[in-house]
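2024-03-11 09:14:02 INFO receiving multi-entity request
2024-03-11 09:14:02 INFO entity count = two
2024-03-11 09:14:03 INFO echoing inputs for audit
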Amino acid sequence: MKGLILNNLYSIDKSVKFSLLISTAVIILLIISGNPTALKIAVLLPFLIIPMNAFEVLKQDSMSSWNKFEITLPLKKSKIIQSKFITFLLLLFTSLLLTFALFYCASIFISPTVMDDFFNIGLRGMGLMFCAASLVYPLTYIFGIEKSDMITMGSMGFAFVMFFFISFLMKVFIGEMKGAEEIFSLSFLLVSIFLFILSYATSVIIYRKKEF
Amino acid sequence: MIIGKNSAFFVIGGGVTLEYALEIEGLCKSFSKSRFALKNISFSVPYGSITGFIGENGAGKTSTMGAILQTLHIDSGSIKIFGERIAEAKKEINNHIGVVYDAMNFSGNLDAIKLSKVFRYLYHNWDNQEYFNYIELFSLPKKQKINSFSRGMAMKLSIAVALSHGARLLILDEATSGLDPVGREDVLEALLKFVRDQKGAILLSSHITSDIEKVADTLVFIKKGEIVLKTSKNDLLNNYAIIQCKEHELNDLRLNGIIAYKNQTDYVDVLVSNKNELPAKFHKKNFSIDDITLLLMKGENYERAHFK
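2024-03-11 09:21:47 INFO inference complete, emitting structure
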């Protein structure tokens, strides 16, 4: 499976490098601005930009017909799906590392307060992407790569709907207590991870039935 | 040479027995969005053999290969590779199967070097030295992105990969298309070398029947999802013939085993499987495998037209 992940990363390496560069530049500019809303956006943005490249892998696979060839490899179909999900996780983890590194440096050299909302917003950023990914993979395997842009946009929409729905539930059941923001962020992330795991199982079932 | 339809062995003149690398028996596959179907496909590819798989576009060559490689799910029948029935649980076997499709199948952002790094992790027996020997032999660039390769270069790269991981069975779908004459010669030589020690077997489909004529020793013709003829090349060249006769004379050729016939303007072209003891009045036409392919694809099946 290592080879599949390497192939995935090679196939999107240019766009990943570009997103890393853009994210770094934007985070630095937003941190320098010192605006509290800008700082929140600076944490969130890399999570919305960098892991998106993982969805591009499906498009590349289809365009190059690698998706047909990889079935002929000595690997079970579940491993092929695993490689796509692991590529997504690697990019999500990269986003976390990049954001953390830049904010940590900013907390040392600019102001220690820039880290105040980091984990709270970071958890939400990861939650949003887990949520979106949980729809992107199975839907792309069902409807094909031709509809991938629509699926990605729809899945992002779904992620925000889930975000506000869980936020609404938290307000109803917990209310305005101390630490409610953090509890919400963690709950949203856990629900999203659950959906992501469910999505993996569903994608494997769909992929096993798929013909190329 | 006897090609036993249900036998697990391939018997050659002196009694040498070789196991089949690939055995397909009663393969059926239908498609929900098409009326096309593979109907009762049965043939085998012995070790040491290059089997030419011949048919026009849409005849079922790629679908049959898809069934063998499990990119398609079959309705019924059995496919055995190296004596084992194929299954998702036995994908390890694919370490020994080399695949070349009719188009490039690798990500365009990679180059030959990056591709070797990918395959080193994917195939247990990946041989980097062998791979770069083929890259040299086929005069392919090592650091040029694959998406800038010509079709011929892409096919050569696919063949280099297929030959570099200890495969014992090659499934090649139109692998020689798009190659220039020199490249084609190099590739055909590499394929002949692959089967020379009797440890490898090749199923090769191609529109270019001259390539098949050059390297294949067994021929399987497919038309509209059905096998219409399977024979050895020697048998075809030594015993088969294309006869030109009048339509009312067709019946006189029945003893010579009519395979197919095609009405021309004022005569009929007939493919017979036994040209020996041919009545003297009949005229034998010089033929190539291309002519036989044309007759099989465009002509009528005699048995079906007259007895069903």
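2024-03-11 09:21:48 INFO post-check: Residues 3 and 29 of chain A are 37 Å apart (CA to CA).
2024-03-11 09:21:48 INFO post-check: The radius of gyration of chain A is 18 Å.
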